[in-house]
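It would be a great kindness if you could assist me with a short task in structural biology. The full record is reproduced below for your convenience:
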Amino acid sequence: MGFRSILASWQVGRLRKNIDTLEFSFPADLLKPRHIMVCLPEGLRELTLVKQFLPTIRDMFKPADVTLLSMPGVKVHDIYPRKGFQILTPSMDQLTWSGLPKKSYVQHLSDQKFDMILDLSIEASHFTSAILLSFPGAIRIGRGNHLGEPYYNLEIKTKYLRDERNIYRSLLDTLGTLLQRPTNGHSSAKPQ
């Protein structure tokens, strides 16, 4: 573990202590998002797998805008279609020395008013952790036994440990099931 990683861990720890958690009503609040940010994984294999699930994410949360956030230094424009998605890739001048997003970059993301963040990273990253902690008012969804509270306010556990395709499928199947659950005695359909 290098000095940059130690500094990033310390900075994320400071962010973590300052986060105010809000209460959400599930599944009702899952039907409301209008601006969704999907945090992409870093590895090429995982990026290729996530690409297969983008139509599912778009259909599941219609008519919300879906923005894909890649890890710093990872070029996804050649892998991902631009149709229907905005792709954000932070440049090196938008990062601190330790690799975390600068306040100006977080403000740029905040201006887009994301109300849901879906973390599809398989490995924990200081960059993604800082992004998640920077949006305390958003529904933050991730896989179980990964980061947990306060990073996520909806943690979905899966029985799959190493099979990334089934991890993503399980995560999205569970979200789909939650979207179909009745809210306040009424059956809820997929958001229109």
In short: Residues 185-192 have pLDDT under 50 and may be disordered. The longest strand covers residues 35-39. Residues 99 and 108 are 17 Å apart (CA to CA).
